[in-house]
């Protein structure tokens, strides 16, 4: 939004994931709040306003316009220039309401349930391994695998 004439300029961009800066955030919800917080554009970083037809100070804000079927959140754990890893704890819950981070914050909650976490094991972006924790419902397993899982459970008792 132009801070001079108050005209709003919207642009829409499709996304596969939401990259979250975690340097100042201790949780996914705090990082999402930072993601949608307005940023002031001024000085060398001014905005070219189509209404004023000049370079002016403005406010820029990211929001999610359309809720995805599957939400993928990426924690930016690597330093920009060094490739070093930010290995701080970032808290997250099993359920997330996306509504506060949408373009329209009014309306019913938009709940997402956590079902997977991808983890990088290593000290930098140049080395390490990835592994994934996923939730599995027994309904999704083929019948034969269900029987094997039940037999394995019985044999451990």
Q: Would you kindly provide a written description of the structure presented here, covering whatever features stand out?
A:
With about 160 residues, the chain is of the alpha+beta class. Helices cover about 15% and strands about 25% of the residues. The protein contains two helices and ten strands, in the order βαβββββββββα. It is globular, with a radius of gyration of 22 Å. About 5% of the residues are buried.
Break the fold down into its secondary structure elements and pairings.
Elements: E1 18-21, H1 28-36, E2 39-41, E3 47-49, E4 54-56, E5 58-60, E6 73-76, E7 95-97, E8 111-113, E9 116-124, E10 127-134, H2 143-156
Parallel strand pairs: 1-6
Antiparallel strand pairs: 2-5, 3-4, 7-8, 9-10
First-last Cα distance: 64 Å
Give the overall shape, derived from the CA principal axes. Answer: globular
Report low-confidence residues grouped into runs of 5 or more. 144-157
**Largest β-sheet summary:** 2 strands, parallel
Helix content range: 10-25%
Mean pLDDT: 82
SSE sequence, one letter per element: EHEEEEEEEEEH
- How many beta-strand runs? 10
Q: Helical element count?
A: 2
Strand content: 25-35%
Widest sheet, order of strands? 1-6
Helix/strand class: alpha+beta
What attributes does this structure have?
157 residues; alpha+beta; two-stranded parallel ribbon; two-stranded antiparallel ribbon; 2 helices; 10 strands; 27% strand
